[in-house]
């Protein structure tokens, strides 16, 4: 149950004409009154003798208790109450009860016998509109301060009493919802998303990893949006607005949105905090010192760095201070935006949805301490400037690796928000994780299939040797992993780590000892990507020569389980 308090107006009759009209798309069906302050208000919808003027006169009558110069200019209070899509269709009697509860909770008609006059109109199955005059029967003004929060609190009780969908309570940090008018306009233009949502996504992608105002606005311009900047007399930039070229009002002028109206963290001052807050002692330079485009890097290398930064962020979220955790979660949103922008077509949609959902998880009342998130923001920057990745080869395989690490980062964020009782943020993070699961399946299918085939081609003694490594490193997981289809890919990876000069048991012990294997659909898949990242192995199996199938073949340079690239000429060449 979602109540929305709309802006106060001055024309009662104008609002009634909309409520009793056919709607902008003829979506208003059988408009009629379901409740009113005295249970006897005229209903222009079903009473042929009643008119909207009659209802308007009745509602506005308390205005005449005041002198003309004492009457409030904005005297029309308007609240819509909408059921969730999966809720059952309520009866008129049930909507009437809901209307009475909402006006009582908000202070419009608290039940003292002298409340405001109001009426509730239903013109669709799933919602009602309540219109009221903001002068009480005794001539006083109603106490409707914070009526939005009061309506939300009452809606949670209504949901419980009626067995309706339980809406996750918010904390006031969410981005503003699109209005019904904006959604209808998007439908007319044949768009999947309203302009507000499309611009929010565009601005978020433009700011991901950006290092300066100039770079941010250059990216916006490259994205094709219209930009207006607000400049102080001193020449300092104070703010900005953006518009889509094809989104026009009735006068054919572009419809601009200020950054702060798109999302609380997209105002210019909040954006500037991202590149001005790097004061952490660990930093030796800042993002702003980087050139507009960093040193050339392959998409695969950028994805490896993103996976590494994501894993370090997981460790921070596990045990860091709240302000540092909040900064890492916010920067994780930049990684998701950048990855969605640069990934191949078969993963782009799900990654875009993951970033869109996670946007809500990036904000809470805990203020982010910028600077600690530098590694994530640099990784986002690298993703942007490395360019689009192919869906195959090392690009495709490292995309799967990055998504795998980001999945655990998003899950860690969900757990942290849940502990802090940030219900909406935790829900958003879990939704993002589901989209990442789908994106991972699409990205990992080919590289894991190649590793699977290589694992199946290993000799039986060599596979038994890898199984022994697994039982020694993770005895509690061994039987589960050996039963998974992904075991063959893990066996091939263990053989690769040994060929590269690592101690497979030591490396696997470290990989399996790290957190969050319980939420994995395939533990073997997770271990494959962790091992390949930790051992700096090519993610694409086709880049590795077939290992010797002899179980007694020596591992070149293997001593302490660390990389021995200095002593292995094959390692140097690679």
How would you sum up this structure in a few lines?
The protein is built from 21 helices and 8 strands.
Detailed description of the structure:
This protein is α+β, with helices and mostly antiparallel strands and 574 residues long. It folds into four domains: 2-162; 180-276, no CATH class; 294-441; 458-574, no CATH class. It has 21 helices and eight strands. It has helices spanning 12-20, 52-60, 92-106, 147-162, 180-188, 195-207, 213-222, 259-262, 268-276, 299-319, 322-342, 345-358, 374-386, 393-419, 423-457, 460-473, 478-482, 487-499, 504-513, 523-534, 569-573; strands at 2-5, 32-36, 76-82, 116-124, 127-136, 226-231, 237-243, 257-258. Strands 1-3-5-4-2 form a five-stranded antiparallel β-sheet, with helices on both faces. Strands 6-7-8 form a three-stranded antiparallel β-sheet. Strand 4 and strand 5 form a beta hairpin. Helix 12 runs antiparallel to helix 15. Residues 278-296 and 550-574 have low confidence and may be disordered.
Feature tags:
3-stranded antiparallel β-sheet, 5-stranded antiparallel β-sheet, disordered C terminus, 49% helix, 574 residues, alpha+beta
